[in-house]
């Protein structure tokens, strides 16, 4: 490219640094592209001629497999090769405007754009579009012809619901923004696109509702995304790790979801969604622990049921964090603190177990973590078998061998199941990691150790902020903004959720007018 | 929106005050009151609450009158700079001693009820380390943690109080108003000791995002504490009667230990009580640690105060292990508090208030002439 720039770089006044401007000659341009895409055997170059006398040379370039061949054949090639022979721009002035003519009258496709530099054009081709080069024309056209293999919209695996929509995001960026847009016929839904990754040029979109979004968060999202400087972005997980507030924390500070309805709801809470190409997980900021403890279904079921389920979920989260350590603390430090009957039962239960409780707990907890990890990697049917073999057979055998107490097996099983009741996998895994800290603390200092570790975790959680919003909101602002409690471990009736959550600090808090009185008479009076 | 604003809301400050004060007084208050005024403790608590609320109003007035000024700046404005240096340095020492003794008391309780065979040094040290961690995180984290812990601490406590009512004798409350009034006034320091800790307001006031709301939140916190003490005192007296209460070392814990509902599987709530207890006491020790860190920051006028958290631990540790026994530590603390606490909570702020009013008057008188 250096030679090219040496010869023509000075001539082009508007030439951008390091970019190649298109030349008038088709052959030159084609050569440039071929030089750029040297040794890329999956590129198709098709040269053809247009016009009545076939005296205008043209060429198109696309990546085989990425572009839609039917579209190229029917609406670019056939129109330019066949149709231009019937109606030819003969007039001299039309010849001068061949490119404009081609664009306006010949390419029967929706997305046609002109590119200023060769690099830009090649970038489009590499994302599945088609480059069209015309002789005697300094413009380069790209035609939207993306037609790469993609997985269809299917049910989200990690966030299944019993009631609610079944569509989930896929790996295709455009499908994902469409799935969100399809739910919101609102001109205020904005989609700002950019490309991240110096080499991968991955499409990333920031989506928000213009008059609802928390503008501080929006600005910060843009700022942080601009700081990303990496060669390739493979998944939204990359983006997440670059823009999160505290990378040392075991807790995820950015929510991710496979469900378009969750994103939509978040957008109307004043949050910002980040869609990343090649990832079925859309990021939602700011993330709060409260939002991550919710499931989409909570809003589709009646409020009393949803409230009960949420309380259960918080209870399960506490269990998954504390249960094994409580077992260790009470059996080895404070047997006097349990009811007498239970103490006696436990003593009988643990008779003959050769280890202290902490070793017992560590053995079983490690085993179950190994089983879980093995189960994730194995294909479905085998995974289920591993669960049964691990859970039942190993547990039973360990008890019969006298290595662990039966109660320990129950504790471990309940803990494991509880951790799966947390709706977000990445949050649950944080809890699971911390569980070991608690077990060690309980083994060292009993209940006091557990409380100190709990305080440690709470201090850490209280210190966390996600894009300026405290991670523990609204629990840490509930005195001032008591309305937010209606969407935490309880789920208030939809009728009474008139305001958007204050802790996200949306631009506009009003969701709807309170019509309980008009619609339901005095029955529902506040 | 500020991303790291180092500010707390007024309710968060109220929560900090509530937890700081409650942790100090709740342990021994009923015994001290029963010893000194018999069954008339409730009257003393009422008086103490009103007095503390009044002092809190003075404190919030001072903080409000000096927006964007730290305590040290307030003192140096009113009482000149050298005085400010001396006062703040002494304040740091005062808080170290107060905090150290509290840590000791707390550690003794933990040792007695939870970790009989663990050396007390380990209990103290682990607590101090955690406190330093919180102090390093700053006031914002402290404020949020306090507000988060309020329901976590209060809801189970209230349930425990309800449960403990079973089997009490209301007759224990009699005789009413038997203590002569001079005796009641003489015992005011005891009750004020139970309210000690609200002076954190003077130092934290700078960091409140809406200073005009401080007075309301702080007074609310004090009234709430008063109500809590009242319930506690009445429950203990109803349950045990005055003579027995005077012989309990930790009447509050004894009260909860009596809870027994075998049918409901609530036979032994000691675990719950001790759990909450650790939370409460930690939250009364950690804010004072942060107060010291902030004071030291003012004293050395540096921007970052994180570096002060850890160096504070050795003196604290030393003070905590000062007394050979619990009784000795208690005696030291009692003496120390009786002499110094009134100066810190009333003397210095009172002086500031006087200077403030004089300056205002001077200004008003001076203005027409100028």
UniProtKB/TrEMBL annotation, chain A:
InterPro entries documented for this protein: Spore_Ger, UPF0353/GerABKA_families
Entry-linked Pfam families: GerA (PF03323)
Biased composition (Basic and acidic residues): 510-526
Keywords: Membrane, Transmembrane, Transmembrane helix
Family: Belongs to the GerABKA family.
Comp. bias intervals (Low complexity): 500-509
Keyword Zinc-finger in annotation: no
Record protein name field: Spore germination protein
Domain of life according to the entry: Bacteria
Spans annotated as Disordered: 500-526
Source organism per UniProt: Alkaliphilus hydrothermalis
Segments traversing the membrane: 311-333, 378-397, 403-422, 434-462
Automatic annotation (TrEMBL), chain B:
Key words of the record: Germination, Membrane, Transmembrane, Transmembrane helix, Transport
Compartments where found: Membrane
Superkingdom of this protein's organism: Bacteria
Cited Pfam families: Spore_permease
Membrane topology, record value: Multi-pass membrane protein
Stretches that traverse the bilayer: 12-29, 41-62, 83-106, 112-133, 145-165, 191-209, 221-242, 272-295, 307-324, 336-358
Family: Belongs to the amino acid-polyamine-organocation (APC) superfamily. Spore germination protein (SGP) (TC 2.A.3.9) family.
Entry protein name: Spore germination protein
